[in-house]
Amino acid sequence: MQQEQARGERNRQRIVEVADRLFYEQGYNSTSFSDIAREAEIPRGNFYYYFKSKDDILEGVIERRIEEMREQLAQWRQTLDDPRERLLAAVRMMLGSEDSIIRYGCPWGTLNAELAKRQPALQARAASMFDVLVEWYREQFTELAVAEPRTMALHLMARMQGASMVANVYTDRDFLRYEINEIERWLTGIRQQGATR
Amino acid sequence: MQQEQARGERNRQRIVEVADRLFYEQGYNSTSFSDIAREAEIPRGNFYYYFKSKDDILEGVIERRIEEMREQLAQWRQTLDDPRERLLAAVRMMLGSEDSIIRYGCPWGTLNAELAKRQPALQARAASMFDVLVEWYREQFTELAVAEPRTMALHLMARMQGASMVANVYTDRDFLRYEINEIERWLTGIRQQGATR
DNA sequence: GTCTATATCTCGATAGAC
DNA sequence: GTCTATCGAGATATAGAC
């Protein structure tokens, strides 16, 4: 946990890495231990030494995704002075994931949508991934002195989710780029205290 | 098929109705024959008399959804003269499904997102549900003499999908209403040949 | 046409040898 | 700590009596 890495810590980490990818590409409920075991090259039975259940692996995946996002957000906050530029950087991030978004949708949105159906407790945990990003958006809108920064943050999320969803349904890269461009135009045009107008 | 309804046609129809609801509330892969059999009060074994596989039931569900949507769209086309009013009617339809959208997301979007992961052939069929609506949107935008009507249609779909997704993730009825209102404002403000401006 | 019984498979999870 | 063997439940699908 501290300076010296536990013997099994690497295995645990590898399980989470593989599960993260497979939960995204296949969905949570459609990914079995066998799938993860095969790709992580770790016997099925060993999983229960590192995690007490499949839900527990999901917990690890969510924590991992949150941590990665926090680091990315902290970096943008440090390197970019203008909150508007920070928001634009977050939107443009989607361009770097074009291929996977078109094939599998947004990793956060699709995970939440799947869990919302029958696993509300797990979905609530998955929603915390959204929280990290929404809260960061809200901070940037607040710095921009925009009215209702929280609502603006949710609106930005909705625009990105909608773009990902439709691009995924139609496997349409051009539309994804069009929508990203439109979101950029919207952000660029926002005036202080001008709300959405 | 024609005037006289086949003996088993009612059972077939009931299976599709129940499956339609359960695929929405639970997801396609997480809904079993037992689930459908229980609620439709039809023994598991009988399913294979009416459908040759689970995929075949999904096919029936998709056809049913498409048929219902076509009827709704035809009605709006008949009763509303202004294409802008028709689009607004389609957007406001979401208000009538608030509760279910917040709980389970958009029935079309979540089904497509689920199938896109590992069942591309089925997803392509599910995308045809989107086609019906997108094509109808496109026709209305064309009548409005807006530039790039097909892109506008996809954009409208994306706005609605994004609103549903975020409202679902946060179980946030107020945000769904806010987004619907914003979409209405956007549609109302569209000028001919003015594109998105 | 309708239903019961069941085959075959895979799932998440556990027991226990080493 | 690591691995094999296996459990009980539940999945889709089928066989065949009525």
List keywords for this structure.
homodimer; 197 residues; mainly alpha; Tetracycline Repressor, domain 2; 77% helix; DNA-binding
Could you please describe the fold and organization of this structure?
2 copies of one chain form a homodimer. Chain A is an all-alpha fold. The first copy, chain A, has a single domain, classed as Tetracycline Repressor, domain 2 (Orthogonal Bundle). Chain A contains 10 helices and no strands. In chain A, 36% of the residues are buried. The mean pLDDT of chain A is 94. Chain A binds chain B through residues 25-27, 29-30, 103-105, 109-110, 112-114, 116-118, 123, 127, 130, 151, 154-155, 157-163, 165-166, 168-170, 172, 175, 178-179, 182, 196, and chain B through 25-27, 29-30, 103-105, 109-110, 112-114, 116-118, 123, 127, 130, 151, 154-155, 157-163, 165-166, 168-170, 172, 175, 178-179, 182, 196. The first copy, chain A, binds a DNA duplex (18 and 18 nucleotides) through residues 7-8, 11, 32-34, 42-49, 53-54.
Rg of chain A (C-alpha, Å): 19 Å
CATH topology of chain A: Tetracycline Repressor, domain 2
Portion of residues in helices of chain A? over 70%
Determine the strand fraction of chain A and express it as a percent band.
under 5%
The structure class of chain A reads mainly alpha
Unreliable stretches of chain A:
none
Secondary-structure element series of chain A: HHHHHHHHHH
Could you give me the name of the CATH homologous superfamily of chain A?
Answer: Tetracycline Repressor, domain 2
Morphology of chain A: globular
- Give the CATH architecture of chain A: Orthogonal Bundle
Look at the structure and give the mean pLDDT of chain A.
Answer: 94
Number of strands of chain A: 0
Number of helices of chain A: 10
Largest pleated sheet of chain A: none
Which two chains have the most extensive interface, and how many residues on each? A-B, 40 and 40 residues
